[in-house]
Write a structure and sequence with these properties.
Elements lengths: L2 H20 L18 E3 H13 L4 H9 L11 H9 L19 E2 L2 E2 L7 H4 L7 H4 L6 H17 L4 E4 H8 L2 H8 L11 E2 L13 H15 L1
Antiparallel strand pairs: 1-4, 2-3, 4-5
Length: 227
Amino acid sequence: MNLSIRLKILDRLYALYDEFVGSLDVACQKYCAHCCTRNVTLTTLEGYRIVDYAEFCHKSAWLQAVKSASRKKRFQPKITTNTIAEFCMRDRCLPDEEVPLKCESCPLLSEDKCSLYQARPFGCRCMISKRNCHKTGFAEMDEFTVTVNCVFLQTIEHLDFDGGSGNLTDILLCLATEKNRYAYQTKTLPFTKWELIPNQPMKVLMIPPEHRQEMGPILQALHRITL
């Protein structure tokens, strides 16, 4: 499957999820940026979409912002969502992940607005809350929404199974150059050099028994897209 097709599928996945969120009662609104930290993770396919969008819209400030953020601590995952699912299926212990205690703002934020909002990754789209995070100190999400989020994360990783995952800063810095974008397209991108981890195909879905029936229509819609 070529890159152009995968990007179109990614856009359709985003649209399907945004439709799902539109049916929920959430407190999130414009200028609400309490959860917009530098710990966001994404796939290389999503990073490619962001850079492609930035160039198309002639936006350039993002690159300097991301370069500045590269000097600060951030969450760099050791394991992908599909690997977590496989570990759980095999009843294996997950590796410890080091998450910085201080969650500083995302480098793409400008006056509490995302400068590349239209192309934001799924990790941002799915961070929703039923109550205002500023008032509660945390995001409140029902268990079914968590399941939906996991399935979409798994699907997006599967779509980019020969790519990588990592922190937003690392992925955008990597894909900022034409050389690295070409390496990504030709499957020769050195993941470890950029603190990225290889994506994995989806072998099992993380859907608890109590959510299987309710997930039916969403899974059917996902299947139609990926075909």
